[in-house]
Amino acid sequence: KDSESLFGALFDTPPVARVVPVLVPLPVPEAYSYAVPEGMAVEPGSVVQVPVGPRQHIGVVWEGGDAQAVDPKKLRPITLVFDCPPLTAEMRSFIEWVSSYTLSPPGLVARMAIRAPAALEPEPMVEALRYAGGEPDRLTPARARVLDVVKEDVPWTRSGLAHAAGVSLSVVDGLVKQGLFETVFLPPPPFVARPDPDYTLPRIEGPQKQAASEIVETVEAGVFAASLIDGVTGSGKTEVYFEAIAEALRRGKQVLILLPEIALTASFLERFEARFGAKPAEWHSDLPPRAREKVWRGVVTGEIRVVAGARSALFLPFEELGLIIVDEEHDPAYKQEDRIFYNARDMAVVRARIGNFPIVLVSATPSVESQVNGQTGRYHLVHLPTRYGDAAMPDLHLVDMRRHPPERGGFLSPVMLRAVAKTVEKGQQALLFLNRRGYAPLTLCRVCGHRFQCPQCSSWLVEHRFRNQIQCHQCGYSERTPEACPECGTFDHLVACGPGVERIAEEVERHFPQARTIIMSSDLLGGVKRMRLELEAIANGEADIVIGTQLVAKGHNFPLMTLVGIVDADLGLANGDPRAAERTFQLLSQVTGRAGRTGLKSHGLLQTYQPQHPVMQAIVSGDASAFYEREIGEREKALLPPFGRLASLIVSADSRGDAEAHARGLRAAAPKVSGISVLGPAEAPLALVRGRHRFRLLVHGRKNSDMQAYLRTMLAAGPKARGSVHVQLDVDPQSF
Ligand code: ADP
Ligand code: ZN
């Protein structure tokens, strides 16, 4: 430093500006360099605003970078520093890790963790009343109660005082008028109340107690440890991890709970509140901007102690995160497949490792990956084999549809219809589950065989009869349901093929005209709000028969539900994806797990054409372990994850030829490395989406191969993406 200034003085050059690297939210591989203006204080992690070309962007000051390499004349200054704590070293390491693992631009990953903190209007002060002494002109019993309450010298809000004294507001107002109170102003109440670990102490006994103490131990140890709670639906897993949360709170740590469908789990928030006396802060994409701003701030400053959020909550820059819970860890919703492709479950484990604190994964049907980690001891396994209290698992039976076919034009077997009738007669609830939105998945012309396909995707148009539309579930394209075939012009010969939930509802209404039915599907007009209300209505027993997609499968507690009927148990098995069996098993277990959670005798019926299929056998036998052993064995043989590694490259372009040529070019550029091979290119499972043609390359590597290095080399050596060509990289793809 000294020699530098001496040097400057000797040669009379202007002082060298301090130069720092800044990550900008653009698809570029590295940080850009910026000058720090005189008097501006920045450090690594500072959230700043910087110019890039003609525009201003939000960015994060980073470390390293070769400042000398920048031409000082081209250097532009940082515009401003936002008034918020800088990202911690822990958070910065996490961002770098995610960026290099997913091969995503670091600035785009960092963008998920920062916000330009808007200047929030300060919350107004709260007007309050303080007893100034004296007596009222007339002492009515109501007035006496108010005076009893205010004897201590603490201020009260007007309504708080009326409530505490059990009198109407006018009584309080009358006393105010007589000058018995002075007005004082109090700071606004905190945005979120602090959860209290000892607000209620639940009775935890037996297997729950053992499980809880093992998990609480990892929180006490306060270092990285991953646990997996593997317990049947209703076994009390939530209650067990609440104990871990309580311990983390006692130790002054912040807690993150990841949930797959947070927007629909109002009941979870209430349950948390019942245990801790305050709700956790929510974080998901339906959050209004102001709430989003407040939660982000509260997390950064440490004011908020617990967040329950969707996968993106993993990138919140907590001040002192000390525990992560990943509930329903197997859920596909944890995988983001947009811009940055990442699995929040896996990245959560990384975050816990970098931050050196414990993480708890929770599921009734753990992913094969987590099962294997449990078996090899990488995760500490905790089992809860039976339901809590006197609730029993539902009795599960297969309905062989070859032997018990539905009547013509129907999809429900007589066996199923009888079971529904019996349930409704008893005043209990039945759920008919079909994971298919709309009325019918395909519309066909009986005369010429024309099928209605999306003009810009390789998918059929799905009929939605309530809306009188046919829709593409890929891109949202829709048109009015046609009356004539566009191919042959014949009227009234279009037929709906196969069922969706709307069609099942129609069948139910035909058979049970008196029953109260509710359809639960994401197509409901009214969105999340309406869905929350419907879920509440179901829980309150305001429906006899519920017809639903996977929206009803997750986490809900419906006390009266004693029958779960799976309309098409084979549905998920047909698509040729090696993960199909696992996914189907998980979904079916979860749906049937909605039945009988409060001790009523309950049943599950699964309509299938393949009763011998291992998934069906695993479900009805209640023995998941045989199924998992088989799945794990097959993955191991084929060196599929977690016994090998996979990445997929989707090459898309406006023309089929361009997409294919580029994919071939990449394939040709693939380096020769033992243990890694490239499959394809082949048309991607969805060959056309929104008018873009898609080809896929699959890179398969042995467990310890350096996939990231391989992919980087391949992309660098391959053709540059030009024109409409785009390459999307997905490390650890969901389907393969
Ligand atoms: P899971 O998360 O495994 O599906 P839950 O934690 O939701 O199971 O528990 C199932 C039901 O049992 C819930 O209604 C819950 O309130 C109740 N329950 C579980 N553990 C306890 C406990 N220790 N004390 C009281 N009720 C409990
Ligand atoms: Zn489409």
TrEMBL record:
SMART domains: DEXDc, HELICc
EC number: 5.6.2.4
Molecular function terms from GO: hydrolase activity
Superkingdom to which the source organism belongs: Bacteria
Presence of the UniProt keyword Transferase in the record: no
Protein residues bound to Zn(2+) 2: C454, C457, C472, C475
Pfam families: DEAD (PF00270), PriA_3primeBD (PF17764), PriA_C (PF18074), Zn_ribbon_PriA (PF18319)
Alphabetized InterPro entries for the sequence: DEAD/DEAH_box_helicase_dom (IPR011545), Helicase_ATP-bd (IPR014001), Helicase_C-like (IPR001650), P-loop_NTPase (IPR027417), PriA (IPR005259), PriA_3primeBD (IPR041222), PriA_3primeBD_sf (IPR042115), PriA_C (IPR041236)
Cofactor(s) the protein requires to work: Zn(2+)
Domain Helicase ATP-binding: 228-384
Keywords recorded for this protein, A-Z: ATP-binding, DNA replication, DNA-binding, Helicase, Hydrolase, Isomerase, Metal-binding, Nucleotide-binding, Primosome, Zinc
Function according to Swiss-Prot or TrEMBL: Initiates the restart of stalled replication forks, which reloads the replicative helicase on sites other than the origin of replication. Recognizes and binds to abandoned replication forks and remodels them to uncover a helicase loading site. Promotes assembly of the primosome at these replication forks.
Family the UniProt entry places it in: Belongs to the helicase family. PriA subfamily.
Subunit structure: Component of the replication restart primosome.
Protein's name according to its UniProt entry: Replication restart protein PriA
Organism, as annotated: Rhizobium helianthi
